[in-house]
Amino acid sequence: MDIDRNAPVGVFDSGVGGLTVAREIMRNLPAEKIVYFGDTARVPYGNKSRETVIRYSRQIIRFLREQKVKAIVVACNTASAFALDAIRDDLDIPILGVIEPGAKVAAAQTRNKRVGVIGTLGTVGSGIHREYLKKYDPDIQVFAKACPLFVPLVEEGWLHDPVTVEVASRYLKELQDKNVDTLILGCTHYPLIRSTIRNIMGEGVCLVNPAYETALELGRLLEEKNLLSTGTQQEEFPYRFYVSDLADEFKAFASSILPYDVEMTQKIDIEKY
Ligand code: DGL
């Protein structure tokens, strides 16, 4: 199949969190156009079953294919953990999740071979980081901790609030006690409270941001497949945003974390797909 290298990249997440990944793609691959889908009607994915997350992801892939994207980034950690293998089989364009790029860098960074992972209940329960980390280095010990309260705190905008600091201290205590020297921020929202996590874990712990690593990996993948855009981003709307519910709330959150104001979002009926 001939893929148009100047077509947009499709990026999807359970809601707004995947914008942390879109933001890194915008920064690191500025010539790439993006079609973003946030499943705001069905968020969160973090406490849903594998079967449900696979079904949702398949619907979104159908929608993104209709938008004629050249590649897909599964920006959601939970969807990457549960659905990536299942949806990869259905596809004839490149697809990338956020778990492997983060695990790869963590395996390369750790010195004491003690790596921490934080994420949703689904991501942590899947054990997928352990699988990847052990593949890179069987001697690595993995300590995972689900931090389900982080997502609502971030969406509330309490990035530096004392409540968030208290919650983070309690969640992270276990990982501090395990003496991890590397910590994977295994959920879309966590890079937004990176400084709080950094203050608690201390400067000696390397924080891995899978959003950033995935953007770099996407660049390598597109280059390898000869799919890097040759465009100069002159288009009026290089970034298009779609949601399954409440476009206005999405717009407000998006504008607070992206380097520009999001003017246009469109609501679509994802259950049709
Ligand atoms: N986007 C999800 C993730 O990265 C977090 C929010 C949710 O639970 O849907 O796992």
Strand order of the largest sheet: 4-3-1-2-9-10
Topology as H/E string? Answer: EHEHEHEHEHHEHHEHEHEHE
Largest sheet: 6 strands, parallel
* Separation, N- and C-terminal Cα atoms: 23 Å
Mean pLDDT over all positions: 95
Mass-distribution shape: globular
β-sheet strand percentage: 15-25%
Contiguous uncertain segments of 5+ residues: none
Rounded to an integer, what's the Rg over CA atoms?
A: 18 Å
Q: Roughly what percent helix?
A: 40-55%
Structure summary, number of beta strands = 10
* Helix-strand category: alpha/beta
Count the DSSP helices: 11
User: What is bound: which ligands?
Assistant: D-glutamic acid
Explain briefly what this protein structure is:
The protein contains eleven helices and ten strands. By secondary structure, the protein is of the alpha/beta class.
Furnish the topology, listing elements before pairings.
Layout (H helix, E strand, L loop, with lengths): L8 E5 L5 H10 L5 E5 L11 H17 L4 E4 L2 H12 L6 E3 L1 H11 L4 E6 L1 H6 L1 H9 L4 E6 L3 H6 L6 H16 L4 E5 L7 H8 L4 E3 L1 H15 L14 E5 L3 H11 L7 E3 L6
Parallel strand pairs: 1-2, 1-3, 2-9, 3-4, 5-6, 5-7, 7-8, 9-10
Helix pairs in contact: 1-10, 2-3, 4-6, 4-10, 8-9
D-glutamic acid binds next to helix 3.
